[in-house]
Amino acid sequence: MGTIDFAPLFRSTVGFDRLFDLLDGATRFETADNYPPYNIEKTGEDAYCITMAVAGFGPEDLSITAQPNLLVVAGQKAKQDDVKYLHHGLATRAFERRFNLADYVQVKGASLENGLLSVNLVREIPEAMKPRTIQIGHAPQPKAIEAKVGETQTAESKKAA
């Protein structure tokens, strides 16, 4: 698959660098490690859940780091030198998964149950960024100035008198 040239878009847009970088990264063919497997679910209008299969890892072996627009889930199992395996089929190798998050997506919590790590996310748009309705009012009418014929003296003529 060929690459897409975003140069024409760079000339006519401002502030979309991150979007172009994401699109460019998504179009590149990478032999990504698929460990550990995960699901991304939409649980509500602005709520999401990432579920990862981390069998063999305990809460002390996992770390979750939330940065602006990035979620990093890492696991490192402590070595157990005193264990002799007859068969070692559980993959407990170290891993790091990175998830790019949209603006205003926040991590609300995480839980580990039955070998599944669940990370709950929610998009909370600040009030200042939400659309608001503007009421249309009437412009104030200018007040008419009425002067009587005998009262049109200026301040200078009053001083002279």
TrEMBL record:
Pfam families: HSP20 (PF00011). Residues 29-139 form the SHSP domain. Keywords: Stress response. It comes from Azospirillum thermophilum. InterPro entries: A-crystallin/Hsp20_dom (IPR002068), ACD_IbpA/B (IPR037913), HSP20-like_chaperone (IPR008978). This is SHSP domain-containing protein. It comes from the Bacteria. Belongs to the small heat shock protein (HSP20) family. SUPFAM superfamilies: HSP20-like chaperones.
